[in-house]
Amino acid sequence: MRGEKDVVNKGGAARPKKLYLIDPGEKGTRHSIADWGFYPDHGRLSTAAVHQVASKRVQRYRQETQVEVLVEYSKTFLPKMPDNHFDWICLDSTHSYEGIRAELLVLRTKVKSGAIVAGDGWQDDPAHPHASTAKAGSEALERREYDPLVTLPALK
Question: In a 3-state reduction of DSSP, which class is residue 22?
Fold first, then answer.
């Protein structure tokens, strides 16, 4: 939830009425971001710092978009939302099979017809630490809970 991806106003294309950024932050089991290289300062970036940076970055959009930055788990946030509420969801959460599967099950009723559900960390290599993301997503597609648009290889 660092706010690196400009999801609010990339070239003026997306202007949501409301944007939710949800991350467990300090509620989570880890108090620093994993070492993914440069992005999280090689594992030295704290979740509190990430929250602060994300909150500051989205301030520039508050005039055109209502933004809520929440320190919460998606598994507790999503069920509280009304059905047929979301036009677009980007999951970048637990990267665990159980977590992604649970989110996708809840989202079936929370997204509008024709909504886009996107995700991060899709890895087809079963040896990769995030392979469970692809497994949960593939199973949801096989059950025809979602219609595939595209899967893109993860950047290494």
Answer: strand
